[in-house]
Amino acid sequence: MNYMTNKIVAIQGNSPAKLKLKTDTSIFLANEIQNKNYKIFYYEPKNLSIINSKVIAKGFFIKFNYNQKPFFKIK
Fold first, then answer.
1. N or C: lower Cβ tally within 10 Å for the chain?
2. Whose CA is closest to 27, among 14, 8, 46, 45?
3. pLDDT tens digits for 24-72?
4. What is the rounded CA–CA span in Å between residue 31 and residue 27?
């Protein structure tokens, strides 16, 4: 059997526009995750909720790239 799975990791952090490229570990971790072919679902703490015992986050998929300006792209 051949099962296809989506590889997704959620990252909680400040607005990407407020992240500092050279010092924020969120960007480093996200880059390592991307190198392993995971998609990144990014959300801010204010957008995380628990409703009826389920964890729900409002966010977006994002891709980071150290070599571009800006260094992130919201998908």
1. N
2. 14
3. 888 888 889 999 999 999 999 999 999 999 999 999 999 998 888 888 9
4. 6
